[in-house]
Amino acid sequence: MASVKAVSNVLLAAFSVVSIFPILWVLYSSLKNQQEFSVNILSLPSSLHFDNYVKAFWDGELYRYLGNSAFVSVISVGLTILIGFVTGYFLSRFSFKGRNVLYAMFLFGMLVPVYGLLVPLFIEYRNLHLLDHRLFLVLPEVTFALPLVIFLIESFIRSVPIEMEEAAYVDGANLASTLFRIVFPMCRPVLSTCMIISFLNVWNEFPFALVLINSQDLKTIPVGLTNFVGQYTINYPQLMAGINVSIVPVIVVYLCLYKRIIQGMVAGAVKG
C-alpha cells in the first residue's frame, strides 16, 4: 500500500508540474527580450523587461481589443442570462403542446458545431450588410450560449419548491413580479454558474470574431493577439505579455463568482 501511495504521489506531482509549467513559462517569457527568447526559450530572463507589457498594451493596441471584447461580452452575457432565465422558467413550470420538442431543440443546439455554421452565417451577414458591427457579433454568441444556460436553469428551477410562487400569486403578485422578485433571487447560484460559463465562452471566442469582423479597430482580444504574428517573424515576448493581460479579466470574474459556481452545479443537477 505504501508503495502504491508513493507512486500515486509521484504521478500527481509530475502531473501538477506538467500542468503548471506552461503557465509559468508564459509569465516569465513575457519578461524577456526577443533576442534572449530566441537563444533559449526555456531559460529564465536575465533581466526583467516590463516594457513588453507597455508596448503590447499601447503599440499593439490591446486596450482597443480589450474594450471590444468587454463590449461584446457584457451585452452577450446579459442577454444570455435574461433570455435563458425566462425560457428555462417557462419550460420548467408550464406544460404546453410542443414543450418537449422545444426543449429537445435547445438540447440539440449544444451538439451543433460552430465551424459548421461559419460559412452560411458569413454569407447571410454579408447579404444583410451586418459585417464589421460589434453589436451584431453578439447574436451568434448568444445563440450558441443559450442551450447550455437554458438546460442548467431549467434543471435548477425544477428542483425549487413551487409553494413560494403560489404564495406570491395568492398575495396578488403578477407573473413578472413573481419571476424577477421571487424566483430570480433563488436562482443566483445557477445564474452565477451560467454567467461565468457564458463569459468565458464569449471572451475566448475566436472563429466568429475572425470571420464576421474585418476592421482592425473592432477586433476582439483573441483575434487582436494574432497581430503579434508577422509574416516572417513573431514577437513572442510581447505576444505572451498580451496573453497575460487578456487573462486578467477572466481571473477577476472567476474570483468574484467561483463560490457560487460549485453551488450552482451541485444544486442544478437533474434529479432522478
From TrEMBL:
One of its GO terms (biological process) is transmembrane transport. The keyword GTP-binding does not apply. It is found in: Cell membrane. It comes from the Bacteria. PROSITE patterns: ABC_TM1. SUPFAM superfamilies: MetI-like. InterPro entries: MetI-like (IPR000515), MetI-like_sf (IPR035906). One of its GO terms (cellular component) is plasma membrane. Pfam families: BPD_transp_1. Residues 66-257 form the ABC transmembrane type-1 domain. It is a multi-pass membrane protein. The chain crosses the membrane at residues 7-28, 70-91, 103-123, 135-157, 178-200, 239-257. Keywords: Cell membrane, Membrane, Transmembrane, Transmembrane helix, Transport. The keyword Transmembrane helix applies. Belongs to the binding-protein-dependent transport system permease family. PANTHER family: ABC TRANSPORTER PERMEASE PROTEIN MG189-RELATED (PTHR43744:SF12), ABC TRANSPORTER PERMEASE PROTEIN MG189-RELATED-RELATED (PTHR43744). This is Carbohydrate ABC transporter permease. It comes from Cohnella zeiphila.
